[in-house]
Amino acid sequence: QVQLVESGGGLVQAGGSLRLSCAASGIIFSSRTLAWYRQAPGKQRERVALSTPGGVTNYAESVKGRFTISRDNAKQNTMYLQMNSLKPEDTAVYYCYAMSTWGQGTQVTVSS
Known about the structure:
11 strands, four-stranded antiparallel β-sheet, single chain, seven-stranded mixed β-sheet
């Protein structure tokens, strides 16, 4: 059974940075496409970053140049989302996703 657990969310001022982590059990990340999504209050869940096993990454236009998705190749079951230059509109619950499985989410709040 695949389980994903996010951590690293919190409250940060605009312009600040956070790094989210996603730890998995029951799956080896190196062979899977991974993604981070977010959902703000009253809005649909949207994908913000994707990473393929071949090293291709893709980002939502709203986070390009500010967010970076990465994998921990040594641990093989951890991925990250580095978020820089955060804006109030980045406030949302962030979820990691792999193999049709969602984590429980971690709240990110950016104050102006």
